[in-house]
Every structure is written in C-alpha cells, then in structure tokens.
Inverse folding.
C-alpha cells in the first residue's frame, strides 16, 4: 500500500474542482482577456471564479485580489512589493522572517538583505516554534514586514500566528504567513 503524507506541498485535485475545471483544460482554453471568439468562451468562467473568490474571502470589488500560480510567486511578489514600497523609498528598513521559512521566502529575504535592508532571522524554540519573545525584541517602528509560516510542513509545528499578528498590528507592520487549514 502507498501512503502519501505530504499534502501540504502537493495534493490530489478535489473531484468537484476537476469537474468544474475540466472544460478549461481541453475545450475552452482561450485567453479570457483577448477579443477573439476563444476568449468569449473562457471569460465568463474567470468572472464566475473571481466572484466566488471575493465571496469566499469576504472581499468586495474595492479590494485588490492578486492571483498567483504558486507559493513561490506569491512570496516573491509580497516581499519584493514591501521592498519597493517601503525599504527602497526609505520609509522602513527592516524585515523579520523565521529561520525555518520556505526557501522562496528565505531566498528573497537574502536578496533584500543584499540590497541593504536589515533582515532579522527569528529563531525557533526547542518545540520548533517561533520564539515570540525574540520577535518582541526584534520588531521596531522601522520593521516593514514579519513573515512566519503558519505551520511547518516538515515538523507539523503550528506557530502562534494570532499572537504574532497582534504584535505586528501593534507596531503597524505587515504580517504574512503560509496558509494552513486545520
């Protein structure tokens, strides 16, 4: 018997999702933003999907929702956006990430560091969880971003994201975490 336990990295597509998407894999494949006939077949599907996303996350049309292809693209987009908006402009000069972040966060943080930004790598404690007192010591009014994964996919440790988020909110900096559902 084969057992796959790394569903945090990749998982089978839910049959309902596959059924809904199947026409767009083999029949309706045109660029939905083009003016040709293929687009007229796909654009309604994109519009419907976006409406479901907005409703599912409680957003409205005034909110910006950016859809990316994967965690690596998402992490790069957020970290580099913070760099260009806050670090490069001199508004802030510091980010904090945990020392067990996803490689896409770690690599991008190292790039930001090479561009002159101060990066603090938060240690984890003996239970494999971010050391919250270390965060309290490291965060300043110059901190633009704190990035901490919600749960470590290798150890199963669940991080105290509500407590970390409250600390960040109190210091007026952004907080991101890798998604995790219980």
């Amino acid at each position: 018997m084969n057992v796959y336990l790394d569903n945090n990295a990749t998982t089978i597509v839910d049959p309902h999702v596959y059924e809904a998407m199947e026409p767009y894999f083999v029949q309706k494949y045109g660029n939905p933003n083009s003016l040709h006939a293929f687009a007229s077949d796909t654009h309604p599907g994109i519009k419907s999907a976006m409406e479901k996303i907005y409703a599912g996350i409680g957003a409205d049309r005034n909110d910006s929702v950016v859809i990316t292809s994967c965690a690596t693209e998402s992490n790069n987009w957020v970290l580099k956006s913070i760099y260009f908006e806050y670090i490069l402009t001199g508004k802030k000069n510091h980010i904090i990430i945990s020392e067990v972040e996803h490689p896409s966060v770690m690599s991008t943080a190292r790039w930001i560091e090479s561009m002159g930004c101060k990066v603090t790598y938060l240690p984890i404690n003996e239970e494999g969880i971010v050391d919250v007192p270390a965060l309290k010591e490291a965060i300043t009014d110059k901190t633009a971003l704190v990035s901490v994964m919600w749960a470590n996919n290798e150890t199963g440790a669940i991080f105290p994201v509500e407590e970390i988020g409250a600390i960040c909110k109190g210091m007026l900096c952004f907080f991101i975490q890798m998604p995790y559902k219980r």
The longest strand covers residues 94-98.
